[in-house]
UniProtKB/TrEMBL annotation:
Region annotation Disordered: where it falls in the sequence: 667-741
Domain of life, per lineage: Eukaryota
Residues in coiled coil: 568-595
Cellular localization per UniProt: Nucleus speckle
Biased composition (Acidic residues): 673-682, 709-727
Descriptive protein name: Crooked neck-like protein 1
Keywords, alphabetical: Coiled coil, mRNA processing, mRNA splicing, Nucleus, Phosphoprotein, Repeat, Spliceosome
Gene Ontology CC annotation, any one: U2-type catalytic step 2 spliceosome
Family affiliation: Belongs to the crooked-neck family.
InterPro entries for the chain: HAT, HAT_Syf1_CNRKL1_C, Syf1-like, TPR-like_helical_dom_sf
Length: 741
């Protein structure tokens, strides 16, 4: 029953948390641990003080404390702090023998504990047990000879006791172990405190501090030691030994700087200069920054202008060396370096730098990579020729450069021409011609031909010039400037027939780079020869090939400049032919240019009738609009432009004037309220606007090209093809109605 009752007993349900949102103030695990720790560390009241009144209580107290210390030691013998506390407590009770016993027991446990030895020795020294202290120090330095604290304490104790000999003996024992540098300096300072300079020197020499610790700073300290005590010669000897000891493999700029400063203090300026130059020649440049700086300061203090310049040049040379070492193909750095070396160096040094520079051939056989490099060779050759004046070596430089260049891929005409000019300066014309001929045969270029021809012209070898021009034209027959120069040469030589034949061959070429220049030169040639009929023939032949407006204008100006009775008539006839031939020209601006030139001619030489005639030929300037299409084909809006309507265009399209009048009539009809009166006024206007019976005033308006600018409204645009057709249909209907009336 009980079990049944227990089984029926209801288990209370755990209340569900309805609000599962995080609390506003969060408590971290760190805060919980901190609070727990703070509650554990609450201050407890100190135990009451005991007052010992008799010896028995004191013995009980000692027994209790000793039992506690012994218990702690028994629990963990390796905790040295328990031993030290025990010994110090015994020491405080003046129980030195007990404290000594405790220290000995502790040393049996851990004899390599430095703190234990120090506390033990300090206790003996406090109690003035000197022999015991010495015994402890001897044991300590025997067991732990590398613990410098024992040696320092031991020597300090002996020195405080006035036992100088014993202290020196300890130092000697210490030095046998070759300790760190500070130990040696402590020994030296000890000897100097008692004025034992020779013994201090023996530490540097005999005991050999500089051999045990062969560092530059120790050698410098040794030299300063000798200098400080007035032994200048010995100090200099120390520096010299140091330089020999380190040699050139492990050379240090600090040693040379100290050596130079030492000599500077002794006023040995020449020695200082020699030391600096010796060091700069042997120390790598990247490690000689401080050396350069000190050398510069020294020269500014004690040197002359030449010395200061030498320092600056050396420093800049070092910088350039660093640059060319970092990037050997940086030719600009090589140029700067060579410029510096050439200004102040012997030829052998300059040649060495040039050889190093030209050895850095561009890795890619492309001309753009060789453009800067080739100037190294040019400067090298010019230096040998102009500065050293060694012609044979200059020739070798040019030949080596020409052999190096890959002429099958590209060449440099400058090198060939400079070589030829050099040979001419050496009065070796045969070599110059041979070199330039080889250049033309291997890699013909325009610059090579021009330079060779110019050379032969200066030598007045005209037959060679003709041959060279022939070769040149075989190489580039489309080069108009070559044809012109060839013809000019023949003209200068007085052979006009050869010049004319050259021009005829030139204009007969199927392909020319600048034909307009060639034709102009040919025409100018005939004008100079006063062959006016041939000039007219040339103009006509040229106009058969091109109808350019400038050709017509030039033709007309030519006719005008000829001194003859009918020159004005010929000029006017040229203008008329030009206007007739350009009526179907699509470029209306060119025709306008022609008519303006004709108008200027008539204003200067023509009659009023001729002027009016030309004025009527001028077009009307009209502003139009057209659609603009973007690159993707979408509509980009409208743009305005100017168009020119010539009189014959207006005659071919008679509805243009009616279209203009219709627009005016439409505007007036919208403004006024009586459309009937407006129609009566507009119909006679339509009659007066026929293209055959137009008045002189309307002709003047139509002929004015600058002042008749008409702006189209947004509603109607004469440039839009659809709106033009609608307006034309309306005007035709109105014209038909007016004819019926």
């Amino acid at each position: 029953m009980a079990s049944t009752a227990a089984g029926k007993q209801r288990i209370p349900k755990v209340a569900k948390v309805k609000n599962k949102a995080p609390a506003e103030v969060q408590i971290t695990a760190e805060q919980l641990l901190r609070e727990a720790k703070e509650r554990e560390l609450e201050l407890l009241p100190p135990p009451p003080k005991q007052k010992i009144t008799d010896k028995e209580e004191l013995n009980d107290y000692k027994l209790k404390k000793r039992k506690g210390f012994e218990d702690n030691i028994r629990k963990n013998r390796t905790v040295i702090s328990n031993w030290i506390k025990y010994a110090q407590w015994e020491e405080s009770l003046q129980e030195v023998q007990r404290a000594r016993s405790i220290y000995e027991r502790a040393l049996d446990v851990d004899h390599r504990n430095i703190t234990l030895w120090l506390k033990y020795a300090e206790m003996e020294m406090k109690t003035r047990q000197v022999n015991h202290a010495r015994n402890i120090w001897d044991r300590a330095i025997t067991i732990l000879p590398r613990a410098n604290q024992f040696w320092y304490k031991y020597t300090y104790m002996e020195e405080m006791l006035g036992n100088v000999a014993g202290c020196r003996q300890v130092f000697e024992r210490w030095m046998e172990w070759e300790p760190e540098e500070q130990a040696w300096h402590s020994y030296i300072n000890f000897e100097l405190r008692y004025k034992e300079v020779d013994k201090a020197r023996s530490i540097y020499e005999t005991n050999s501090l500089v051999m045990v610790h062969p560092e530059v700073k120790n050698w410098i300290k040794y030299a300063h030691f000798e200098e400080k005590h007035g032994y200048i010669a010995l100090g200099r000897k120390v520096f010299e030994r140091a330089v020999e000891f380190f040699g050139e493999e492990q050379i240090s700029e600090g040693l040379y700087v100290a050596f130079a400063r030492f000599e500077e203090k002794q006023k040995e300026f020449e020695r200082v200069r020699v030391i600096y130059k010796y060091a700069l020649d042997r120390i790598p440049k990247q490690k000689a920054q401080e050396l350069f700086k000190n050398y510069t300061v020294f020269e500014k203090k004690f040197g002359d202008r030449r010395g200061i310049e030498d320092v600056i040049v050396s420093k800049r040379r070092f910088q350039y060396e660093e640059e060319v070492r970092a990037s050997p193909h940086n030719y600009d750095a090589w140029f700067d370096y060579l410029r510096l070396v050439e200004s102040d160096a012997d030829p052998d040094t300059v040649r060495e730098v040039y050889e190093r520079a030209i050895a850095n051939t561009p890795p890619i056989p492309e001309k753009r990579h060789w453009r800067r490099y080739i100037y190294l060779w040019i400067n090298y050759a010019l230096y040998e020729e102009l500065e050293v004046k060694d012609a044979e070596r200059t020739r070798q430089v040019y030949k080596a450069c020409l052999e190096l260049i890959p002429h099958k891929k590209f060449t440099f005409a400058k090198i060939w021409l400079l070589y030829g000019q050099f040979e001419i300066r050496q009065k070796n014309l045969q070599n110059a011609r041979r070199g330039l001929g080889t250049a033309i045969g291997k890699c013909p270029k325009n610059k090579l031909f021009k330079g060779y021809i110019e050379l032969e012209l200066q030598l007045r070898e005209f037959d060679r010039c003709r041959k060279l021009y022939e070769k040149y034209l075989e190489f580039t027959p489309e080069n108009c400037s070559t044809w012109i120069k060839f013809a000019e040469l023949e003209t200068i030589l007085g052979d006009s027939e050869r010049a004319r034949a050259i021009y005829e061959l030139a204009i007969g070429q199927p392909r020319l780079d600048m034909p307009e220049v060639l034709w102009k030169s040919y025409i100018d040639f005939e004008i100079e020869q006063e062959e006016y009929e041939k000039t007219r023939g040339l103009y006509k032949r040229l106009l058969q090939r091109t109808q350019h407006v400038k050709v017509w204008i030039s033709f007309a100006q030519f006719e005008l400049t000829i001194e003859s009775s009918n020159r004005l008539q010929r000029c006017r006839q040229v203008y008329e032919e030009a206007n007739k031939s350009m009526q179907n020209c699509e470029e209306k601006e060119e025709r306008l240019m022609l008519l303006e030139s004709w108008r200027d001619f008539e204003e200067e030489f023509g009659s009023d009738a001729n002027q009016n005639r030309v004025q009527k030929l001028l077009p009307e300037k009209v502003k139009k609009r057209r659609k603009v299409t973007a690159e993707d084909g979408s509509d980009a809006g409208w743009e305005e432009y100017y168009d020119y309507i010539f009189p014959e265009d207006a005659a071919n399209q008679p509805n243009l004037k009616l279209l203009a009048m219709a627009k005016m009539w439409k505007k007036q009809q919208q403004k006024e309220e009586e459309p009937e009166d407006e129609e009566e006024e507009s119909l006679p206007q339509g009659k007066q606007s026929s293209p055959q019976d137009s008045s002189d005033e309307e002709e003047t308006k139509t002929a004015a090209p600058q002042d008749l600018d008409r702006d189209d409204d947004d509603e109607s645009s004469s440039s839009d093809s659809e709106s033009d057709e609608d307006d034309r249909e309306k005007t035709e209907e109105k014209e038909a109605g007016s004819e019926k009336d």
